[in-house]
Structure formats: structure tokens, C-alpha cells
Amino acid sequence: MTMVAGSLTAPADPHLRRALQAIDTATAGLAPDAWTTAPPGRWNSAQIVEHLGKAYGRTVYILEKCLADGLPKGRPASWRQRLFTTLIVDVGYFPSGVQAPAMTIPEGLSGRDALASARQALIELDAAAAQCAARFGPRVLVANHPMLGGFTVRQWRRFHWAHTRHHVKQIARLQA
Questions:
Q1: How many domains does the chain have?
Q2: What is the pLDDT of residue 58?
Q3: Which tops the pLDDT comparison, 5 or 122?
Q4: How far is CA 42 from CA 5, 54, 94, in A?
Q5: Most buried of the four, 78, 102, 119, 172, by CB within 10 Å?
Q6: Is residue 29 part of a domain?
Q7: Which domain holds residue 162?
Q8: How far apart are CA 70 and CA 66, in angstroms?
């Protein structure tokens, strides 16, 4: 892991490091009321960052379970799942309007707490992904995404970068 000026450690993986940098850039200097401003029925910036942190943390949980059990848990994806994985992971297109999995729905953290939680979860994700890659290899489907099927470590990293980029754009629109 590397050090970033004025912050905790940053992920070694370039995709996860870019995700952290994007979150930091999008939230830099947000006033307390800016964290909680959003149109009716939409998530505010604090909720978006909390959602990202929960998504990273859920992946950490799954990867650590694979490590503890000593075996990968990914299953081959259906043709439809492969199509969406290609769009998201390989092309970088993250569709709008997809319902977030229940375990990633924000619960109301403050902006500052959501940011700290997301940053910590990204660091933990980087470590767990590196351990899985070393233990199981780069081509193994280590764990399942709840909607997209089994992912390799590389796919998990790229997924979280695409997912983060999608939500950072939402934060930018909220602040404009």
C-alpha cells in the first residue's frame, strides 16, 4: 500500500486507487449541508458514499470468507450475466436505474462517517483481493456478485472502479 498526502493509506491496485481518488475529489470541501442535499426520492452525497462503502465492505466479507474456507466460491455466469459483466467490467458502462442490493442500501451515516467507512473498506478490499489473487490465481472465479455471477479478482477490482465512477458522477451532479 502507498501513502497519499493528507490521507490514510491508499490501495495498491490502480483501479481501487482511482476509486478512492475519485471519491476524495468528488467530496473535497463539501459543506455539511451539501452532503445531505438531494432532490426528493434521490440519494444525497452522504448516502451515495455510504452505499459505495457498503458495496466495498460486502465484497471484502465475501473474499475473506473464501480465504477462511480455503476455496473460491464463484460460479459461472449465465449468458445474460456475462453480457452485463462485459458492459460494466470491460467496457466501463454502468447502467442507471438498477436497484441496489439490500445489503448496500444506506442507513443514514453522516457524510464524514460515510467517507471514513468507504475509505477503510477500499483499503480492506485491496488487501483481501490481493490475498485471493495470490492464493487462488488470477483466472479463478473467486466470488459471486449478487446480480452478475462469478467474478475473478480482476473483475471485482474493475467492477468497483466502474461502480464508483458511476456514483461519483451523481455526486458531481448534486453539487452542480
A1: 1
A2: 97
A3: 122
A4: 33, 18, 18
A5: 119
A6: no
A7: 42-175
A8: 6
